[in-house]
Amino acid sequence: MLWDLDTDAFTFSVSSEDKAFTKRGVLSVVNSLYDPLGLTAPITIKGKALLRELSSEINDWDEPLSFEREVEWIKWKESLKLLEDVHVPRCIIQSSLSLTKKKELCIFSDASTFAIGAVAYIRVVNEEGNYQVVLVGKSKLAPKPAHTIPRLELCAAVLAVELYEYIKDEIDLEIDTVRFFTDSKIVLGYINNTTRRFYVYVSNRVNRIRQSTRPEQWCYVATKQNPADLASRSIAAHELQDSMWFTGPEFLSRQELLEVNNYDLVQPEADSEVRPVVTTMLTKTSNVDLGAHRFERFSNWKGLLNAVGKLLQIAKSFKKIPGKPGKGTWKCSHTSCGVDEFSQARITVLRSIQQDAYKEELDCIKRGRALLKGSSLRRLNPQVDKHGLLRVGGRLSDADLTQEEKHPVIVPPGHVSTIIIRHYHESVAHQGRHITEGAIRAAGFWVVGGKRRTCNVIKVCVTCKKLRGKEEYQLMADLPADRVTCEPPFTSVGVDVFGPWQVLARRTRGASANNKRWAVIFSCMYTRAVHLEVIESLSASSFINALRRFFAIRGPARVLRSDRGTNFIAETRELRKHLLEKGCVWLFNPPHSSHMGGSWERMIGIARKILNAMLLQSKHTRLTHEILCTFLAEVMAIMNARPLVPVSCDPDQPTVLTPAMLLTQKWTLPVLLLGTSIPYTT
Ligand SMILES: [Zn+2]
Ligand SMILES: [Zn+2]
Q1: What are the Integrase catalytic domain coordinates in residue numbering (predicted)?
Q2: What is the DSSP string of 110-160?
């Protein structure tokens, strides 16, 4: 850099000494150009770039470099000679300082993937017009690995800010305004942003920019009019003198600069530098009331009173710490609430829900005014007691009764009224609406809409459903195959034992006879005929005897069914095996499923009824084994003579179908001597 005293301008000279084309030589030439103001930045950046490329390729300082590089290198070195023709006037402001109206600093910045650059001009406005002079330029290689263009543009903006601070410290002139220009709307958006947050890289640089500049100072300039573009791209030396690098862009010479407008973030949702929006909320409550909505967490009245009573205990134990407003100590005792605390809690809860529901009414009464026309409490003539509770007025004020009786507390509709109703409904052992309502009133509550609400509570009460529910009927399954298969009588047989009956035992010398008798019922599954046999004990041997008699009279059966009675299961294994050889299976119902033996249990019921009637008629006769046998035979006859289908009203078919008809092929009933005076015993 030289100072030409004749023209009072800066010029440059490049040493013509030839250096070897090695890394050392290149470094020497690049650094031989002394240019503290960065006036030749668009040229020198090219040399710096070349040096960086060489450094990454070759490590040795004195190794000769490749031929292709040498061509490029010589071309650049030759072009440096043209810098000797460059003349930059040293004097910034040629006219008299007193005549200048305004001195403005304009700093441009730009970036490319190759380098970032910034250049500052001073713009002077005086009476004759205005002009601008280049002040300082600066360029830096873009960092490797490559950044995104918006990040590089942001770095260039930071470079411009640094340049501004440098000028501000060094220049002796008073600058009126400072403006920054960039051709990146994204960067302008970052700088002007007040709504979103950025990740660290952008955030740090935006903070740096906003430390020393204001967003209003930043303007947009088209890339073609941006002189910093030259520094970031590098140009040939012969183009430099005629470019806008020294003269500044043409629009600066105009009288007034464009108005600055606001720049918003460019597509903040798609920008990876912008942090996603996080919404945070602040809840502030100023209500000192307990808030009736909290009571909805309780499902019973006692629990609610207990909890509020506990809170009151804690509130009483609260002691302020002097000097610390809003802070204090409290303790929670483990003793349950006393009577006082319960009644205090009751008042607190009721007052709280009344405050919520009847705010206007309470206001009116406190001010001594009549209730509003539309108020639902108008009919009740309400009054406020010493605890601030709304009570029903009525005409019994002078009566010799307790206050609860004279003036019940008004309970507004809502959750608390529901749990009060439920509490008193349970306390009267789930009685109906009438009794529940009575209990509520006796406890001193006037529940608004009480009848309907009580009905609703009872309607959903599970215990009441259990107590008063309609009886449900089981949907019956299909009949078993035995019942619907056409077979001879007593082919499929249900077996069971019933009884016992007390009989008059004959006294035998030396041993006392068993005086209980049972009956075995054999019920045909198809014809519904029955056969009864008397047995003397519940033992297996008695049963086997009965079975043998049955088989002897009615013929062999194919299927026997029974429950798992002990006399059927125990000691009959041999018998079952024997029966199986004769082609008869014995099936047992599953345990505890008496419903599966319904067809013969029903027959037992009929047999008992008939027998009971017989025993009643013959009450003067003492029951002996013989008479019981006779009775059971007659019971069997009556049962087998019962109609199987409804008795017909058709005159063409006057007969009834009975099991006896199927068994005996006879139409008439057997001759029974029931109710006659013919004695059974002598
Ligand atoms: Zn109930
Ligand atoms: Zn009768």
Answers
A1: 484-667
A2: EE-SSEEEEEEEEEEEETTEEEEEEEEEEEEEPPSSPPPHHHHHHHHHHHH
CA of 453 to the centre of ligand 1 (A): 13
Check whether 287 has a pLDDT greater than 60: no
Lowest mean pLDDT among 12-21, 85-94, 113-122, 284-293: 284-293
Angle ∠(204,207,212) on CA atoms, nearest 5: 135
What is the identity of the amino acid at 472?
Answer: E
b/e burial code for range 224-237 (CB count within 10 A of at least 16 → b): ebbbbbbbbbbbeb
Q: What is the DSSP string of 202-249?
A: HHHHHHHHHHH--GGGEEE--GGG-THHHHHH---HHHHTTSHHHH--
CB atoms within 10 A of CB 133: 18
Q: What are the tens digits of pLDDT across the range 486-542?
A: 999 999 999 999 989 988 876 666 555 668 899 999 999 999 999 999 998 888 888
Ligand minimally distant from the alpha carbon of residue 617 = 2
- pLDDT-derived band of residue 193, with 50, 70 and 90 as boundaries? confident
For strands 559-562 and 585-588, give the pairing: parallel
Whole-number Å distance, alpha carbon 472 to ligand 1 midpoint, is 20
423 C-alpha to ligand 1 centroid (Å): 10
Task: Report which bound ligand comes closest to the CA of 616.
Answer: 2
Nearest ligand for residue 463 CA: 1
Q: How far is the CA of 460 from the centre of ligand 1 (A)?
A: 8
Ligand 1: distance of its center to the CA of 442 in Å? 19
Ligand number with the minimum distance to the CA of 425? 1
Residue 145: is it exposed, middle or buried by C-beta count within 10 angstroms (0-12/13-18/19+)? Answer: exposed
User: What domains does the chain contain, in order, with CATH numbers?
Assistant: 2-85 (no CATH), 92-253 (3.30.420), 292-319+331-466 (1.10.340.70), 488-647+656-664 (3.30.420.10)
The rounded Cα 554 to chain-centroid distance in angstroms is: 72
ipTM over 0.85: no
CA 675–ligand 2 middle distance (angstroms): 12
Ligand nearest to the CA of 674: 2
How many angstroms is it from 400 CA to the middle of ligand 1?
34
The token pair at 546 is 């009965």
Q: Which ligand neighbours the alpha carbon of 675 most closely?
A: 2
User: Residue 483 C-alpha to ligand 2 middle, in angstroms?
Assistant: 31
From ligand 2's centre to the CA of 618, what distance in Å? Answer: 14
List the one residue out of 116, 123, 199, 130 whose CA is nearest residue 161: 116
Nearest ligand, measured from the Cα of 614: 2
Question: Residue 430 CA: which ligand is closest?
Answer: 1
**Signed CA dihedral, 164, 165, 171, 177: sign only:** positive
